[in-house]
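User: quick one, fold this
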Amino acid sequence: MLAKLVESFRAQGHDAFCCFLYDRSDGGNPPPSGTRFLIQGRFRLGSILAAARHLLALFGRPRPDIVLTFHPKASLLAQLLALGARVPGRIASQRNVADAEKPWLRWMDGFYGSLGLYTRIAMVSCSTADTFSAWPAAYRRRMKVLPNGIVPLTFAADDVPAWTGRPLLVAVGRLAPQKNHTFLLEVLAELPQAHLAIAGDGPERDRLQAQVTRLGLTDRVHFCGTLSRDRVNALVARADVFAMPSLFEGMSNALLEALAIGTPIVASDVPAQREVLVDAAGRAAGVVLPLHKAAWVSAIQDVLDHPALRQSYREQALRRARDFTMDRCVTRYLALMRHLVPHQVRQPRTRRSLAIAGRSCDLVQAPAALQKIIRTIEGREPLLIANHNVNSLVRSLDSQEMQQFYRLAHMTLIDGMPLIWWARILGFHASRRHRVCWLDHLDVVFAEAANHGWKICHIGGRPGVGDRARADILARHPALQLVTCHGHFAFPGPEADAVLAEIHRIQPRILLVGMGMPRQEEWIAQYWSRLPACVVVTTGGTFDVYAGVTPNAPRWLGPLGLEWAFRILTEPRRLWRRYLVDPWRLVPHLLRDLRRGRRR
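Assistant:
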């Protein structure tokens, strides 16, 4: 759900990203695109300090308006750092009952919430909030109920297992005592025709398998292990009954998704399950029962024996699922955020254009640019994304091909703090977030491409550099389809024609051109009409950095406008004129900007 929240915030124009403390996907569900895992390996002091350093860097470039955390450990670490970074909105989320966590976590969480390290505490359900009734009043005053939303469903087209032709019960959840699978196995022993498929894994697996053997259920219980979300949905859709005998819950996403699929539900009568299945008018979208074996056997047998009853439960489930849409969930979160920091969150950031030294630029933040790329790829349309910095402004003064390139561009991003500062002088509401350097954001593009199976082609660099950069990138994104071609060829000419033919053979969705300025812009200007329909992005020497050929400036220098100082120190002979002499040519043009009047 977290990934969908972030995607929805971005779709509404907000700059949002997500991090995870560590990877617990176990291979069944790939992490969301652009995911950062802060802790590699075990949860130790060294890894926690490394994660803290990473978060401090994220909170400082630039400072976010809201930090939202979805796990107690994440809350303890990230919200303390957010307070130190003076983040105005700090929202912790409680997704389970009060006594579900370890005592030290509960104590620290209560301490944080009572002292105001959290500005708000999102409770996943009213029943979850009720379990905190004995906590300090200062903590409870900050609580706000924000129910989960149902992420749009996808279904795998797997072969149907042989046992799905029998009456089928499905349980979804980690194999842990909370989920109470032992009770469900006892119920199954009284239903001689039924099979049970359990999707999930965990520490209780060996004990449950021993119980299966003891009860003589080996042929009727199927441990499916950790499955991808679309395969779980497909399994639930084939089931006759979705069974959930949990001892306690916060608000189960599996239960919500079973509602949206329309599978008849039999669930334990614990507060969170009743809150999901029974609406305000008392209508139940399934069977809610105490944990008595005889009652469960009878209820499940009734559902299996009566198709009309199954259809009735299906209709009630689908109706109830409409109360938990993702749109409602997003609206509730945004309303809370606007309450905490109204001046930042009230209006989504939109694209604005301005002219600097007579050259058009777009005030677009990186997430909006990434969403534009994704929408364009899905629509199979051409898109040319350029960028302007001081060097490009100077070079475009004399080069007709550079000017033609920028006329072709659909979007021209700003890659340089001096241009951001000048936009402010001209009266635009520009911030460091409007500086888009692809070295900071290409990993998100790679993750999206790997997730969707999009091909990427890169042209640029000396022979061999692309291969080294590709190895570095694939180490982080092994599923990525990435082809590299060197950029040391003359154009126009037969070599350039061969490169163009290779691009048409590959049919990339994204073409990265990293030949350096102005060569990359001149090549695109000459060959734009002959390129296949794809997203074309100029990336300069980014792949040289990935390959280790060019030293990478500390990323915190860029938002401060000091990356040029690092580069001139590392390559003084090549760059001293670019940074110390050429910019003065812009002065007459910048003065004309001022004479045209500041934007009010």
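User: anything notable?
Assistant: The chain has a mean pLDDT of 85.
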